[in-house]
Amino acid sequence: MNTLLMSDKKENKNQEKEENQFFDEKQKQKFENFVNPIDADKIAENPGLLPYAHTVGGAIIVPTEKGIMKSKALAAMEQQTEMQLDQIKEQINLLAKQANEIQSRTQISLEIYNADMGFEPLVNHTYFLYERPKTGEKVLSMIAPDQWGRSSKLTFMAEVLLLADRTWKVIRDNKESEEENENNIDI
């Protein structure tokens, strides 16, 4: 019996081989004649490397709109840059203003040190700069314009303060005092 079963098995295997060979040839013909309906450009060789899901059960990957992201980023960058540039402009303006103040203090200091003065000025004290009308010579005085009375033959130029760095700061000049006199009404 054993031999019978063995021979039956051999026959079945042979028959299967013949059928498989036929099936393989048939299959080969189908594959050779097969035309893929999907465009070859749309088929991925390595679908696992795609940046989106390639199967029904794949993870949902929602693509972002790059244009919107970029425009938002650019708008934020431009706003931040503009704000920083405005701060730098303000700092530049402040530095320019300080430089002008130092330059004007230097100019008035040169005028005062070239002026005629009969005393040694003290730091943090207020003095008055005058000009002699005939000669144009500058004179530094401790007497204010309103303390002279009518006998003064000097033209008031500026009220000045001696700073610790030995430069002079103009507190009030002739233009400001003329405006004050125009605003005063004699009754």
Describe the structure.
- The protein is an alpha+beta fold and 187 residues long.
- It has 3 helices and 4 strands.
- The protein has helices at residues 2-33, 66-113, 174-183, and strands at 126-131, 138-141, 155-162, 168-173.
- A 4-stranded antiparallel beta sheet has the order 2-1-3-4.
- A hairpin with a 5-residue loop joins strand 3 and strand 4 (168-173).
- The longest helix is centred in the middle third of the chain and has 48 residues, at 66-113.
- The chain is rod-shaped.
- The model is unreliable at 180-187 (pLDDT under 50).
Key phrases:
187 residues; alpha+beta; 3 helices; 4 strands; rod-shaped
Indicate the percent of residues in helices: 40-55%
Class computed from helices, strands and strand pairing: alpha+beta
List the total number of helices: 3
**Spans with pLDDT under 50 lasting ≥5 residues?**
180-187
Question: Biggest sheet, open or closed, and with what strands and sense?
Answer: 4 strands, antiparallel
Distance between the termini: 152 Å
Overall pLDDT score: 78
Order of helices and strands: HHEEEEH
**Got a strand count?**
4
Rg of Cα set: 51 Å
Shape: rod-shaped
Give the neighbour order of strands across the main sheet: 2-1-3-4
Report the sheet-strand fraction.
5-15%
Secondary structure layout plus pairing:
Blueprint: H1 2-33, H2 66-113, E1 126-131, E2 138-141, E3 155-162, E4 168-173, H3 174-183
Antiparallel strand pairs: 1-2, 1-3, 3-4
